[in-house]
Automatic annotation (TrEMBL):
InterPro entries: PEP-util_enz_mobile_dom, PEP_Utilizing_Enz, Phosphohistidine_dom_sf. Its EC number is 2.7.9.2. Keywords: Pyruvate, Transferase. The keyword S-adenosyl-L-methionine does not apply. This is Pyruvate,water dikinase.
Amino acid sequence: MTITSPDSTPVPGEPAQAVPGKRFASPFAVTTPPGAEGWESMYPYYALLSTERAEFEDGKFWFFDGMHNPEPLYPFDTIMTENWWVAVSQMSTRVWPIPLAGGIDQRIINGYLYISPNAVVDADEIAARAGDFEVRAGHYYENWDEIYEQWVAKATDCIERLKQISFAPLPGKESESAVFSHRGLYSTYDLLTSYSELIHNLFEMGSYHFEMLNLGYGAYLTFREYCQAAFPGITDQTIASMVSGIDIMLFRPDDEIRALARLAVDLGLTEQLLTHEDPDAAIAAVAAQPVGGRWIEAFEQAKDPWFWFSTGAGYQHSDRAWIDDLRLPFTALRGYIKTLLDGHEIERPLEAILAERVRVTDEYRTYLPTDADRESFDGLVELARKVFPFVENHNFYVEHWHHSIFWSKVRELGDVFVAHDFLDDREDIFYLHRNEIYSALYDLNIGWATGTQARGVTYWRPEVERRQRIREVLKANPPQPALGVPPEYITEPLTVMLWGINQESVQEWLGSEGQDPNRLNGVAASAGKATGKARVILDPEQLHEVEDGDILVCRITAPSWAPVFSRLSAAVSDVGGIMAHTAIVCREYGLPAVVGTGFATTTIRTGQLIEVDGGNGVVRVLEDVTA
């Protein structure tokens, strides 16, 4: 397997042409909205800007992570951001290390998460890191399939252990079995231990999350850089087409919906599913039919694990799974049934995508002048295709299956606090940081053990109410896309490939003032051109509003939105690169897409007639039909 060697490790070249004298606003110039004073108390000190590091922090480039956290962070939800802050960064800096990439920093500003990639620019350090990377990454690349199989076993085991964790209110008195078993450990110990297990399980999966991911993006980035050097002018779309058409797990839930639609047609159950918009009513109507049991059995088999599919990125507790809210999969189900009844196919155009992959790969291979060049090209494209399934499949195991179950377990713990009169609603637990919950649990244990009312009964309700008010104010004040000083180099693989942030996109944001207000530039993510009505989606709850032919405009899509794509004519996102989910899904569905526009959701309004040029990365507002 061909991998990057120390001798071929690229060094940073000339930065993109900068906009003279321009920078983004200082992060320290961001003012607190009236009514949100004291927001900092909701978050740990290490996630906040600090005056003692003001010069350093003001001199960095920070961009809003609307991809994973589009709203102000709930205190508990910071467990996800803090988790990847360490997990992703240690892989690039301490485990491999990737020659040009440092870690990714985080700061919370007015409740919103901003991140900043670090670059390694010292030539001697790059060379030293390249030697370690060659050996360590080479081992993973050369044994990828075996290691991936081991990874699946570890991830699945982590999920199964998560399922076994449970929470229940402390009993009126310990059971006789707790006494006569002589265990010597009781409900207070079990409550604290179960919470510790829950937190450690999340961090364990977080570590697995990035065990192979940075290498996956790194391999693709190396292939991309090779193609850009060997084939001047080649587009990211063309490069991506050489690894497209690979079957990945993130399409499986949508495939299950398609299979259920076909079965409904075969069994003559379409009327029951089409006439009831409420999923529970539709299920009941199907179950009442003589052949309904067959469909219900198939539906139940599909639900676990494939309906543990988050409607968001999985990083927020508000990203509910299909299994919690069946409206989205049932909307897709009815759409597929109607398509089948109209005599049309509902398959993804996989064969055409595979044929195009072969054609493009063969064509560009012929442009290479020597056998050595062709051998290098073959090795890099083979490696990119090998790692690509993990780059996408890990999402189902981690962000969807695991995280959805994790959030449900936290809600079980919320029920414990409600039962002991600390909180009014299970959802209120998310206004506590995970470390505060340790204290609250011990407070609960003290009250239970002593018979004295725990202080949490009077302490947490007003504090939760205060935090709710603050967060609502922050939510009503959207963040700026970027802050600080434009970077000279961006070399961190996830930043480039996933978020779509590079020198060019940053300078595009800086130079946006004075440009045509009806034009947005972004990453040309999926070829084709489409004109249609814009549908701005800021919350997964709005997905039920999508109509046939709409052009989706969003911050970023989630893989679980896949059923909606069969109704779209194109897609546009604020953030994302050539390997973001929006880009990948659109290529697989043959839809034009432009990602990484920065300002689409704040520029375009639902109902406007827009044109998406996925070949050139341009979005135009043609007509305002919203007036």
